[in-house]
Every structure is written in structure tokens, then in C-alpha cells.
Design goal:
The protein contains 2 helices and 11 strands; from the N terminus they run βββαββββββββα. By secondary structure, it is mainly beta.
Amino acid sequence: MHHRPRLIALAGLLAGAGTLSACSSSVDVSVADKASSPWCAKAAAQWPTTVSGEKSREVSVKSPTVHAWGDPAIIARCGVTSPGATSRQCFGVSGVDWVGTTLSDGMSFVTYGREPAIEVLVPKDYSPEPLVLGAFTKAASAIPQGPHRCSA
């Protein structure tokens, strides 16, 4: 048996979330604060079937707004707060703006300018991590783009 890496979210970035890890049967996750938004229901209906060639995984919560793929798990949650002005890496992928944060064992990405936002946690096993974001274009595009963009 090998040990599975865990994505440890930054406390300031993920209010209310703790350690997110892959378990033998399901992926331990938490529902985001704004997951009950009707926009998250629309986004969740657009989660991809596969991400980076990885199939869907069962998660520990009964909410369509949280989803996982692969082992180690790529995790997506709708209902987080979109980042405000930031000096962190901000870039567009297929018309969706994302703010990236490097974690100890991967990266966290949060949609920028969409409220509520979608967060995607990508283990370093899928490096370069930003390449998985294209799979989330349909889901992220279900939430309207506000006035804030990565570049003017």
C-alpha cells in the first residue's frame, strides 16, 4: 500500500474547511458556505464526467455542489467566496478567470469575479495543476461573470 497525499487547505482561503483527503471509500470534504445558492445548483449540473482522465469519486457529503475525481482526488466545491483584489496568480482559462494558490501538496484555484465562486483543489500528482481547469469551464460558466476580471 502507498500513502495517498492530502490537500491541506489554507485556513484563510477555505473558511470552515479542514483537511481534505482521499479515503479508501470516499473523499472527505465539506460543503462550502454558499453552496445553497441557485447558481451552485446550475454549476453542479455541469460538473465534468472525467477530469484529467480520472473518473468520478464518492464524497463524504450528500451535496451535488461538491465533487471529486481520481486518486489522489481532484476536488471541486461550489459556494466559496470569490477572492477580492489579490496579488496572487490570476489567469484566464477558456474564458474563466481563476486565482491560484500554491499549497504544500498541490494547488488551490478559485474562480475570480463570479459569486458564489468555485474552488478546485488539485494534487501535485496532476502537475502542471492549471491544466485541469479546462474541465471546469462549463460548470464555472454557469455562474455569471461579474465586473471583476484578472486583467482590465
